[in-house]
Amino acid sequence: MSNNTNTSPSSATLAEFKKFILKGNVIDLSTGVIIGASFNSIVGSVNKGILEPLIRLVGGNPNFTLPIQIGQFVDKRGELQPNFIDLGLVLSAGMGFLITAAVVFFVIIKPFNKLMEIAKVEKVVIETTEQRLLREIRDLLSNSQRSMGQGPQP
């Protein structure tokens, strides 16, 4: 809340909300959600167009059902129907998640980390060169002061 005594709680809350909304984190988060949603279609296409045919080639249908009857229920017509838990649906979703995570990791994260590693190595080389030059300048200045009798003697 604000220290201003004339500010009502509702306007202070609105000001706080405005500050929250205008933070870069909120903008970054919303941008990430939008990009993630559109990226989902790319991952889905890779999954459906490439990975699922390869899985079918090796091991059959990647989408499977594994129903387990847990009892019965009465439907809208009053008839008794079996009630199932479909573990296959959960397993398919888990496999889909792992495939999506693998695509994201190997297509985005690994190349990005490699680029960052390359950038870091180049930065270290530049910093090392700068440090070397600064050290040479320092040594030259130190030697010139010693030869003139102004600096500390070793």
The mean pLDDT is 79
Distance between the termini: 62 Å
Instruction: Count the E strands.
Output: 2
What does the largest sheet look like? 2 strands, antiparallel
Q: Report the principal-axis shape.
A: elongated
Unreliable spans are none
Can you walk me through this structure?
It is built from 3 helices and 2 strands. It is mainly alpha-helical and 154 residues long. The chain has a domain at 9-62. A two-stranded antiparallel ribbon has the order 1-2. The longest helix is centred in the C-terminal third of the chain and has 61 residues, at 87-147. It is elongated. The mean pLDDT is 79.
Keywords:
154 residues; mainly alpha; 3 helices; 71% helix; 10% strand; elongated
Q: TL;DR?
A:
This protein is mainly alpha-helical and 154 residues long. Helix content is 71%, strand content 10%.
